[in-house]
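For reproducibility, we list the full input for the aspartic acid complex.
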Amino acid sequence: MKVLKFGGTSVGSSSSIKEVAKLVNNNEVNFVVLSAMTGTTNELVSISDCLNNKDQQAANAKIEKLECNYYDVVNALYSTNAFLEKGRELIACHFDYIKSFTQDMFTLYEEKAILAQGELISTALFHFFLQEQNIPSVLVSALNFMRIDKQNEPDTFYIRENLNREMKANPGVKIYITQGFICRNAFGEIDNLKRGGSDYSASIIGQALNAEEIQIWTDIDGMHNNDPRMVENTKPLAQLSFDEAAELAYFGAKILHPSSILPAKIANIPVRLKNTMAPSAEGTLISSEVVGEGIKAIAAKDEITAIKIKSDRMLLAHGFLRKVFEIFETYKTSIDMITTSEVAVSVTIDDIRHLPQIVDELKHYGMVEVDTELSIISIVGNFLNESKGFAFQIFDSLQNIPVRMISYGGSHHNVSVLVNTSDKKEALNAIHNKVF
Ligand code: ADP
Ligand code: ASP
Ligand code: MG
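The corresponding predicted structure, in tokenized form, follows.
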């Protein structure tokens, strides 16, 4: 069995939904994971924001507009009166639900319930389309098996048990369909796997089903060697190892959710990135194999904050770093980059929810400085032979760009530099032109 995930643009119009139907109806057993239609989750976030800000009027206007767009999709997608009717009823039902939330009782729970509607609608529309085409399929609700625990980590045992139960209840089917992104939390409430989380859903499902392959279908022909939104003439990579792909995903390559490689790596299931708009393009194969040497790709992660703790007295005292790290641990804030000197240590974080408390506690150990609006640029590849001058090429290319931190040697797969976000584009291009 293969898991096939289709992102927002892949199901973004009636014609692309029809293309997806062709791709999944290939006589193999496929577990199909769908995102919401492109733009929907952003709109649902914006509707929730309006309700949060007690602006019911603006929320209503946005809800109405989104609902109208969906009637257009229904009208273009189905050809029989029966399914046109079913599609309209479905849209009305989901939008009545969205309209039932008012500003008076709006909490985080309601927001998550609203965000879930995008994937619930896209999968139901797709299932109806297959039914209209007489292609047998089963719609399995992710809310019946996808669950995160109190630490917001996938509850792998629960997911495996419940997913297998759902599959056993529907034997002999070739096409299973489910929602990406949405799940339940430890309290049974509707929740989600964070923005872009459908990739993560697909790999969690792949691991739970021990799939033969996980395919991520999107709007580009695989992982490129740099961010195509920032750099011209980027090229797709035919092959990456799990570790290389995980570094790129974690450090900003938007094509993959940051956590989506780990479940595949644990279960040793190859991940193939494919282009829905050009299915015959080779794409990228991500597997346990490490192929080639040197720099393979560059990515950037924004909204990084750097914290410097400076202390003449304590830095070299043993136990100092442990105390510093314990503060971050207390606030469940993970650190991305670390550099130390004799009198100071600098770290970067991307989750600033507890920054004020962290800074207050760090002040017991020295002077604390905070810098914001930074980006980590990660250069990823296979640096087994350090003598080959990879570091020189990278730093030489950055001679005109102020660099705040450098991390080299932490692994054989990653060199990271921290720059001001305003310099990010120039840095990505400078490194690209030098190393490729
Ligand atoms: P989907 O909706 O299918 O999940 P995403 O928008 O989340 O699609 O991811 C695909 C996009 O990721 C591409 O259109 C591209 O602009 C962006 N992207 C960023 N970095 C890379 C990269 N290194 N390789 C390929 N695409 C990338
Ligand atoms: N629809 C969700 C989002 O836009 C999940 C996803 O597309 O992967 O973030
Ligand atoms: Mg995505």
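The longest helix spans residues 56-77. The longest strand covers residues 294-310. Both points were considered when choosing residues for closer inspection.
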